[in-house]
Please model this.
Amino acid sequence: MWKWKAKNVDWQGGRLSCRHCPHGDLEKRLRCCLGQTCVFDRRPSLIEKFFASNPDMSNGYLQHPYFEIRAAAARHAELFRLTALLDDPDETVRINAALRLPRRFLLRLRNDPHREVRARVAGALEGEELLPMITDPDYFVRQIVALRIGVPQLRQMIDDPDAEVRRVVAERIGPEMLSLLAGDPEAAVRLAVAQRYTPSQLITMRFDEDCRVRLEAALRVVVSGLDLMGGDEDETVRETVKERLTAVARASASGTHVVLEMHPARSSVGRF
Model:
C-alpha cells in the first residue's frame, strides 16, 4: 500500500490517497499511479501524464474546478467539446482549447483580456490575420506581431510607442522605407537601420549621437565618407576609420582599385 507523502497532495492541498479514488481500475491496468500519474494531484505534470495515458477520460474533466485539470483535459478532449472553453475564466484553458480548434476560433481570442493568450494567438496567426493586433495594448504582443506580420503591413507600425517594437520593424521593413526610422529617438532602432543601410546610405549616419551607430558607419560607409570621421570622440570609431583609410592608401599606392568594407569580427578587401 502506498504511504502518503507530503508532496502527494491534491489540488486543494489535502492528503492524496488511492483508497477512495474513482479510477481504481486504471491503477490495476497501470494507467495511473500515485506520485507519478494522477488526475487529482496538484502538480500539472502528473495531471498531463494522466490524460496522455487516458485521453478517453478528458471530456469528463472539462468542467473541473481546478484550472490545471481543465487545461490538461483541453489538450486531449474531443474537438467538438472545446468551443465552450473559449470563455473559460482561466487563460491557460482558453488558449489550449483555441490552439486545437479551427483557425476561426483562434481569431476570437485576438482581444482576449490576458496578454499571454494574445501573445500565443499572435504567434500562431499570420499576415492580415494580425492586422487587428498591431495596436494591442501590450508591447510584447505587438513585438510578436511585428515579427510575423507581412512586410508591407509593417508601415503601420513605424510609429509604435515602444522602441523594441520599432527595432523589430527596422529589421524587417522594406529597404525603401528604412529612412523613415533613421531619425528614431532610440539608438537601438537607428542601429538596426544602419546595419541594413548600404555603404552610400550610411553617409547620413556618420555623425549619429550614438557611438554604435557611428561605428557601423565607420565599418561600412563608402570610403569618401570617412575623412570627416577621423576626429570622432570615440576611440574605437577613430581606430576603425584610421585602419580603413590606411588600407585604402596602401592599395592606392600599389595601383589597385579597392572597395573596402569591414565587419566587427574581420575586414575584407574586394579587388576588381
Remarks:
- DSSP finds eleven helices and two strands in the chain.
